[in-house]
Write a structure and sequence with these properties.
Length: 120
């Protein structure tokens, strides 16, 4: 897919959706920021791409809310990297966020699947 076409097909994330995606990604295991962005992109077949200008403020916000925690580690190439993990509170929040997301999906499906009626 050409870069221009990929950009045109990007989906803007609803507010709060990035938090859900980060929490879900961390449920699969601890990860550094770049790894989280890659997991979101790969898991969405390249439809969702999170830039660092959105990702890191979200990670800091989630850490402040104590839904995730972070520690510094040395990577395989001896670089310091911040590794994020889901906390118990984050797991509870993920359940809540997934429930809200499912309610939104169901509501949208109800509207989108309704037959169109003509207005007089």
């Amino acid at each position: 897919m050409a870069k221009r076409e990929r950009y045109q097909n990007r989906i803007e994330l609803l507010q709060g959706t990035l938090d859900l995606l980060i929490l879900q990604t961390l449920q699969w295991g601890p990860q550094h920021g770049y790894g989280i962005a890659q997991a979101i992109q790969a898991g969405s077949s390249d439809v969702l791409q999170v830039d660092t200008g959105s990702l890191y403020p979200a990670l800091h916000r989630l850490e402040k809310q104590r839904w995730i925690s972070a520690t510094w580690k040395l990577s395989a190439n001896k670089q310091r990297t911040r590794v994020y993990r889901l906390t118990a509170a984050g797991r509870r929040q993920l359940v809540s966020e997934r429930s809200r997301w499912q309610a939104m999906v169901d509501a949208m499906a109800g509207i989108l699947s309704k037959p169109q009626t003509s207005q007089s």
